[in-house]
Amino acid sequence: METTSTKGLRLTAAYPYHAANYLVRAAITAPSLHNSQPWLFIGDRTCLDLYANPARQLPAADPDGRELVIGCGAALFNVRLAMRHLGFRPDVRVCPTRWNPAHLARIGWGPFGRAGANEELMHHALRARRTHRGPFQSPPLPQRLVDDLRRQARAEGADLYVVTDGNVRGHLAELVREAETIQRTDPAWRAELYHWTQEFTGTRLDGVPLATCTYHPDCVPFAGRDFLGLSATMPDPPEVWSEHTGLVAVLTTCYDTRVEWLQAGQALQRLLLHAAAHRVSAAFHTQPLELPRLRAQVRAGLLFGQFPQMILRLGHTRRGAPTPRRPATDVLRMRSESGGGATRLGTPRR
Ligand SMILES: Cc1cc2nc3c(=O)[nH]c(=O)nc-3n(C[C@H](O)[C@H](O)[C@H](O)COP(=O)(O)O)c2cc1C
Q1: Does ligand 1 come within 6 angstroms of the Cβ of 35?
Q2: Which residues contact 270 (CB under 8 A, 6 or more apart)?
Q3: H or E element: which one contains 261?
Q4: How many structural domains are present in the chain?
């Protein structure tokens, strides 16, 4: 049963579209694989429904939709945070429709409750957070912040395994390199990456703009995705910054169903926003988690059976170029008052 508060009802009854649009504008700042933005929202005066958009799933990199759901989980965390910023406690039900696996969450307006200082800091960081691709400045992150980041992940039911041992870090870097080599040489992967790469910045509202790939993908020991195709034209990077790798960590969950993927996404976004609020950025290296054999090796060799959901590096760097988003009107529909149908707002797009 939904526990929509009177104040929440009043707000959404008076301005159902504006309330939903406000939440969705926060949601779409979330990270997603290759900036595919695989979400859809349906709102009405009592709640906002989050759906996965299967048309935006990446068949080569993500055949099971695991990373798609992680991206949607990150968007879900943003919706919760935006509701908290407005002063309401979100009332979230995950995977609420058994027969429809695309229906990932229903977020209702819960009772009134002022947001905490940490929530406000994270909310403030929503638009400042950006994915980094390259080396980090050398000073290590303070241990207190590292402990805090772990706490943020745990608060969402996931865990952050910080790789401190040099041998383990080396082993993980080798698995990333092996996966990246496989993906660079496989035509299906290359075609998919090319499809999601924005050759000319500003020409589309999804995909990864080249302006965000300013370093050679092999300039740190953790191989990056080769969006620019540099490894073919320039096999040796001009500089290699081994000591500027940053903090290496793996986000894990105990199980591996859609519910945990959604949890992992919320944990990811929570720790990324907490990091961004402290001017810390993240780089991702999820390539080995996209190949079952290598994912099993990460799981068995490094994580004592926990399921790896994201591999990331964290550190200080200059703020990079932004990555565009489709507008909220493209991904939000309002349920019609008369009978269940949804009205799409804005220009219909995939
Ligand atoms: C599940 C998932 C996997 C990702 N994997 C990678 C990756 O392996 N390499 C990378 O450079 N970025 C990766 N990203 C980051 C996205 O490319 C990035 O979020 C997207 O381009 C939007 O940019 P922004 O995060 O700066 O807003 C991943 C993001 C998600 C949610």
Answers
A1: yes
A2: 77, 122, 152, 153, 155, 156
A3: helix 258-277
A4: 2
Which atom number of ligand 1 is nearest to the Cα of residue 32?
A: 31
How many whole angstroms separate alpha carbon 228 and alpha carbon 198?
10
The backbone region for 218, taken as left when phi is positive above 0, alpha when psi lies in -120 to 50, beta otherwise, is: alpha
Ligand 1 binding pocket includes 30 (Cβ within 6 Å): no
pTM of the model: 0.95
Ligand 1 pocket, residue 67 CB under 6 Å: yes
Please identify, by atom number, the ligand 1 atom nearest to the C-alpha of residue 212.
26
Q: Which stretches does DSSP call E strand in 95-246?
A: 103-112, 159-162, 197-198, 208-209
Q: Do 77 and 129 form a contact (C-beta atoms < 8 A)? A: no
Residues 86 and 231 in one domain: no
Query: How do residues 237-280 score in pLDDT, each as one tens digit?
Result: 888 888 899 999 999 999 999 999 999 999 999 999 999 999 99
Question: Helix 16-27 to helix 6-14 angle, to the nearest 10 degrees?
Answer: 100
Instruction: Tell how far the Cα of 248 is from the centroid of ligand 1, in angstroms.
Output: 16
DSSP conformation class of 176:
H
Kindly state whether residue 239 falls inside one of the protein's structural domains: yes
- CATH number of the domain within which 309 lies: 3.40.109.10
Place of tokens 């009107």: 329
Distance CA 180, CA 178 (A): 6
Q: Is 350 domain-assigned?
A: no
